[in-house]
Every structure is written in C-alpha cells, then in structure tokens.
Amino acid sequence: MTIIKQEEFIQSIADALQFISYYHPADFVRAMAEAWKSEQSAAAKDAIAQILVNSRMCAEGHRPICQDTGMVVAFVEIGMNLQWQAEMSVEEMVNEGVRRAYSDPDNVLRASMVTDPAGARKNTGDNTPAVVHTRMVAGDRLAVRIAAKGGGSENKSKFTVLNPSASLVDWILEVVPAMGAGWCPPGMLGIGIGGSGEKAMLLAKEALMEHIDINELKARGAQTTAEKLRLELFEKVNALGIGAQGLGGLTTVLDVKINDFPTHAASLPVAVIPNCAATRHVAFTLDGSGPAQFTPPKLEDWPDISLDGGAGARRVSLDGLTREEIAQWQPGERILLSGKLLTGRDAAHKRIQDLLARGEPLPDGVDFHNRFIYYVGPVDPVNDEVVGPAGPTTSTRMDKFTEMMLAETGLIGMVGKAERGPAAIESIKKHGAVYLMAVGGAAYLVSKAIRSARIVAFGDLGMEAIREFEVEDMPVTVAVDSKGTSVHLSGPAEWRVKIADMKRTG
Q: How many other C-beta atoms are found inside a 10 Å radius of the C-beta of residue 142?
C-alpha cells in the first residue's frame, strides 16, 4: 500500500511553488519564441523580447518572473487506495507548503492574499490560504497540478450562460477585446463549456494547466467539437490584432484550451479565464517514495535575444521635469527614465483620497508636484538587491483616482501596465499629463533599473506602501500622451486591419 507522508507532501508543494516562480514551462518559452520570430509589430516584438529576456534572467537568478507571485490554486487527485501518514488535512498541508515556499529566504515571494475581502482586506502575510480542489480517484497515487495565478489575469475571468442556439465563438470574440490588456497578453485562454456555473469556471481553470500544443493540433487536424473550436478561436482571437501587451500585433494568444462537460438541455454555460505572460504551473505525482523532483529547463531552450538598450529611445530625467517637456512626447515613443519617482497602488490611493477628503496633508515625503507615480507592489529584496522584481500592476484599477491625483496633488505622470479607461484618458488630456506603460511580465528585468528604494509612507500596507525609487534608464512607452491619444486604442485597430489585409492577399 502506498503511504504518503505529511512532510513529503508539504515539501513537494513548497518546492513546486519555488520552481514555478522562476521557471517558465518549456512549452511556453517555445511558443513565445515563435511569436517573437514572427511578430511584425515593432512595439509588440520589443515587448515579447523583454518578456523572454526577463524569463531567462529569472531562470538563471532564481527570482520571480513577475512581482505578482500569484494566488496558489491546487488540483489534488487522491487515490482511494493510498494511506496518509499525516496529522493535518489536505488543505492544511497545501497551505503549509505555500507558507514555506513564500517565506523562503533565498527567494522570498510576494504575499498577496488578503482576508476579510469585503472589509479590512488585511494581508495574511504568507500568501495563504490556497484555493484547493480535491478529487477522489481510483488507484494508490497522489497527483497534483499546482499554479500561481496572477491577479491581473484572474480579474479578467468571464462567465455567461448562453442560449443553446447562440454562438459561443461570437461571445468569446466580444469578451476578449473587453478584457483589455490587463491580463498581459500573449498568453493562453482557458475555456470551460457545460456543466453548471461553477463547473464551467472550474473546467476553464483546469484547462490552463495543460501544455501548449496548438501547432500539433493544426498539423494532425481537429477530431472533436472542442478541437474545432480551439482552432477557430485561436485564429479569430489573434485576428483581433490586440497583440503583446495590447499594443497591436500578430499574437494575442499562444493557445486556446477547452474542457467541456455535459450540461442541462436548456443551458450553455461558458467560462473563459486568461493566463498571462507569467504562466506558472507544474504537475507532479507522489507514490510514497519521497518528495517530488523537478527537472529545470535548459538555458538553450531560450532564444538568443539581445535588447537594443537605448537605441532610438528618448532619455529623460525625472528630476525637475515639467509639463512643457512631457507635452513633446509622442504616442508609442520609447522613453528611458532616470531619477526619482514615487510608487503607489490601490490601497495607497484610497488613503490619499481619505486624507484629502478630510483636508489633511499628505505624509512627510509624499510630494507629487511635477512628479511621476509608478503603480507597483514589489517583491521583497534578497541578498544585495535594493528591491525585488518590480513590474507594473494593472493601471485601470487606479482610473477612479486619476482625476483626484492630477487635480489635487500636482502629479504629471503615471507608469503602469495595460490601457486606461475613457475617464482617465480625459483627465490626462485635461491636465496635460502623460501615462507611460512598462511591460507586464518583465518584473525582474525592470528591477535592474532601480538603483535605490525606500518606504516613505504607509509602511503597514506592506507591498502596497508608498516607496521612492531612484531609477536609471527604466524602459517605458508613451501609452497616453498629453493630448489624450492612446496607443492601446490605435495599435490594435491598426493591426486588425493589417491582419485582415494579410489574409485577403494570402
């Protein structure tokens, strides 16, 4: 009889989470490399290059691919004939593995889970609890599929119940553009069809655990309805021209994965969940012989890419910058930032809003006059780092605060990822400010441009505290200029037309 020991299961969970924090799956690296080779949009090609360079740096340095080190989701299949040698429940053991992984001193991972989600939203401090799904199956082995799911992509999850005669494809082609770029394309779409509402969502999440194999499917041809839908959606979603980071280009999705399940005759439940460019998942099986072993990928699996540094980019000093200077920046222009900027995310913006509403001053050291704010919640540093991986968070969450920040604090610029909404763009135009985009999924690469970091306010917020970064040649793109022109609107529109022309001309 197979005996699964508590410590071996806990250690396997911890090792798996550390492993996926810095190693992309090999199939993902290959698919991204192919996307980079074929991409014709200069902006999208540069974004994919940054993601791949960051990926290799993380593999070499054993540091997180993204500063959002994810919410842990585990699918645990328990053989009915195995025996546990454990005092803890399955969920307790998974959570202990999460706790151990996220507090590893050699590679500290960011704790993002908050309790009392509709109230105080207090960080649990160790990224627990995990979301655990268990299933009893035949046999005597323990099979685990585990992922660290980023909030930016998880927030774009969609669900509907269609009329059985409605077009599932049409619905997907409506919701994917509405997702914006906050899920950090290119990535995967997981789609669940059938069952009940909760079953469809679960099917979609499980689909994201599968390997990228769309090219193999193309080569052998579709044999089922689900496979036919995969091929159709892969082509049609990429034809939308959304492209890497939403900048416009040929590749929006690397694969479309579909799981289905029988459903009620009156229903067609459909769920879609995207996986971002920080795809992190792995599977392992325990048979009682010890903890799981994970084989690192080979560095030659990554393409040989050299970023062109500052070629063609405008170098800008943030210190003493004026509105007159930023008014000269053009949509889509590459900028290299040097100097000091402040950071802040949702919780910090809410506190600023509350202070201003009460007529109270901002904390000492928090002066936004003629300055930029970077939307980021970094990973804690290790060894000689000044800061851990520090990529941008989704900027649309700060849209509700944009008018306040630009009108009442003297702020002139923002740095984040993905698009801005209509109200935020209007505020940017009204105040002659700018919005710059850093590449999501290149957090370790971005952190190398940060020369110093210190907390200046709201230290109790942890990763959401306001910090002051001093940066040198931090690469960004003008995403919304001072006149309100957004590349996240113009880029995909341009490439949608180009892709359609390519198809017509063969």
A: 24
Residue 105 CB-half CA count within 13 A = 2
Please report the sign of the dihedral spanned by the C-alpha atoms of residue 485, residue 319, residue 446, residue 39: positive
Q: Give the DSSP H/E element, type plus range, for residue 428.
A: helix 422-431
Which amino acid appears at position 447 of this protein? S
Closest CA to 229 of 182, 270, 199, 276: 270
Query: Order of strands, edge to edge, in the sheet holding 268-275?
Result: 158-162, 268-275, 187-195, 253-263
Q: pTM of the predicted model, to two decimals?
A: 0.94
* pLDDT tens sequence across 22-73: 999 999 999 999 999 999 999 999 999 999 999 999 999 999 999 999 999 9
Structural domains in the chain, CATH included, are 1-149+282-307 (no CATH), 151-277 (3.30.1330), 314-491 (3.20.130.10)
What's the chain's length in residues?
506
| Spatial contact of 393 and 383, defined as CB atoms under 8 Å apart | no
CA distances from 190 to 10, 209, 249, 251 (A): 28, 9, 21, 16
Cα 54 to Cα 449: distance, rounded to the nearest angstrom: 13
